[in-house]
Specification:
Chains A, B: Its EC number is 2.1.1.200. 2 copies of one chain form a homodimer. Chain A has about 240 residues and is α/β, with parallel strands linked by helices. Helices cover about 50% and strands about 10% of the residues of chain A. The radius of gyration of chain A is 29 Å and the shape is elongated.
């Protein structure tokens, strides 16, 4: 699904930014990169900064005109500052992720456009975008690096993509292999604790046990952890018995 | 509110990454940066890559030990791969943002830890974190640049901060009066536990302490609970001393 989302960089000044953007894309599962009239082509710097994402850089399609990069796309989203005259079409990255994934699911081809490092997209380009994507940055310092912006947007695309997958995640499957202590086992532990620390004179009222119960309930104690906790109680008891003899 | 969230970078190899991370932080409204034993100090490269965020770089606090960077924090979150033995404490950036902002609202000081460029955090460091933050990256290529990871996490912190958090749940209201133990206090407790149970012959290798650390990190131990746990250790010690005499 993410394969149907294209990242387009317009007149990028620094080839390093192309490499970093490619890396950012690939970490989030995107692959399709278009470069419109880059100031520096794909060079050693671009490859170096792409780290293991040199395939994305090498497969990048270089075109001379903006229109060539979007002609086959039915949904075009352009990054932009929070401009007043665009306010009706402004979206943030999270919404962008949701809209793009929905569109792809409906068979659309999506392009997300990132402008020049310093001046972004020009007005003509902005007018070719259905939505205008703005990152809710610190108003006092909103200068995100180009590749950072690509990273954030691709992250939200991936998050929206992952949310569409309802099947049990790997995490849930793995979780079944953890065995939490049963209520009964916890109860034995609490009784054991209370017995021992009463005999030590530390527990003299119910308050302490209530607090300990709350703590260990909250912790969702696993069986192997409970074994350790019980072992600690027994270790203390043994020493007390030893001294009694 | 974002001022009470500290970003900690551990043994960063490249000073450029420090600069880029500072820029990423500032674009999202964060300012407090701690550097633990950076391989390259703050140099021209760090300043250059910070762009307009050189104030964040120049105000960074440099310490030699991890503990110094977290000792006054009551919520410590460490970035990590999706490790099996951490599965109970794994969170993703979005959840991290929500948890951190909730904690800050309750008066807590939060630290988010980013490990070394290649190898991340070591096991000992991971054990000092209550939550383990993992970015849901492309499983086939999950190699995010350090500053990119900082950018994503700070973005989610900002998003959580900007969201009009609706009505505080009862739980949250109650939480405002709760004071969690600091990392330093927890560390004293672990050391105390280890000392005592080694002397009792129960602890003979590192495995037990690692499991206990994981359990108590997960539990988010409150100060009054920690007082009880320490009191229990002392109660045992007193009896041992008594019998010795």
């Amino acid at each position: 699904m993410l394969d149907n989302i294209r990242i387009v960089l317009i007149e990028t000044s620094h080839s390093g930014n192309i490499g970093s953007a490619a890396r950012a894309m690939k970490t989030m599962g995107l692959r399709e990169l278009y470069l419109v009239a880059p100031k520096q082509g794909i060079d050693q710097q671009a490859i170096a900064l792409s780290a293991g994402a040199d395939d994305v850089v090498k497969n990048a399609v270089i075109v001379t005109q903006f229109e060539q990069a979007i002609s086959d796309c039915s949904l075009v989203i352009g990054t932009s500052a929070r401009l007043r005259h665009l306010q009706n079409s402004l979206i943030e990255p999270r919404q962008c992720g949701e809209i793009a994934i929905q569109s792809v699911k409906c068979g659309e081809k999506v392009a997300i456009i990132f402008g020049r490092e310093r001046v972004g997209l020009n007005n003509e380009e902005l007018l070719k975008c259905r939505y205008h994507l703005t990152i809710p940055a610190n108003p006092e310092y909103s200068s995100l690096n180009l590749a950072m912006a690509v990273q954030l947007v691709c992250y939200e695309l991936r998050m929206a993509f992952l949310q569409e997958i309802p099947v049990a995640t790997i995490e849930n499957i793995v979780k079944t292999t953890i065995h939490l202590a049963t209520a009964q086992q916890l109860e034995y532990f609490f009784e054991h604790t209370e017995r021992l620390y009463q005999s030590l004179g530390f527990i003299q009222n119910q308050g302490v046990m209530q607090k300990l119960r709350r703590l260990y309930q909250r912790a969702a104690v696993e069986q192997n952890e409970l074994n350790i906790l019980r072992g600690m109680l027994t270790a203390v008891e043994k020493h007390l018995d030893f001294h009694k003899e």
